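Lecture 7 notes: from sequence to structure.

We start with a single chain of 226 residues. Read the sequence below before looking at the structure.
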Amino acid sequence: WTSEHPNLAENEYFCMRAAHHAGLQVPALALSNSGQFLVVERFDLQEQGYLGFEDFCVLSGQTATQKYKGSYENITRRIRDFVSTENVHPALESFFKALALSCALQNGDAHLKNFGVLYQHAESHVHLAPIYDLVTTTVYQPGDILALTLGGTKRWPNAKTLIAFARSHCEMSDARARIALAEVAHGLQMARQEMAEHMAHTSSFAEMGQMMLKQWDQGMATSLPS
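Now the structure, written as tokens:
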């Protein structure tokens, strides 16, 4: 929490809850009683030790300072390059849903370092890492835009653009893409209910909650089918 980013932990918590309800793989997480801290279980650590993790900044041959340079189309190419063949299709579908969710949440920080892959060792299967670091950024930066380009622009896409992206880059039929977008909408609706309950019992979050709901309404109206 900072003066520039009030209620940040609660913001991220409910965005991640939306991802969970949308059927995306997310780390185990909990909000502290004070609402000031988000406790997230490490997804790169198992009983036998640390898993290998690489984000798409590294996989694209770019430095951390270049994390906002690139396109979502390029991430799908890197998924095909680095994810194990048998895991490519589910990875592309998950990535599509994560991108659509970020648009609906108005998360303008879905950059190259906020997606990655996991593997046990150099010769093991590689799969897409759980989704992490989701925030409704437009409550802090009105007029925020996509972190990377989609179709050559950083404007928030409409549903037609997202479905075309799914078809052209994620190996998904239009029908499957619409199902995925419906799952995203369901995730948002479930998270909205949880957030409303939290707002009712936490006066310090009420104003931010209302701001987030307004941004979610706008994101859903823009990016999800009516």
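The first strand starts at residue 29 and ends at 31. Keep this in mind for problem set 3.
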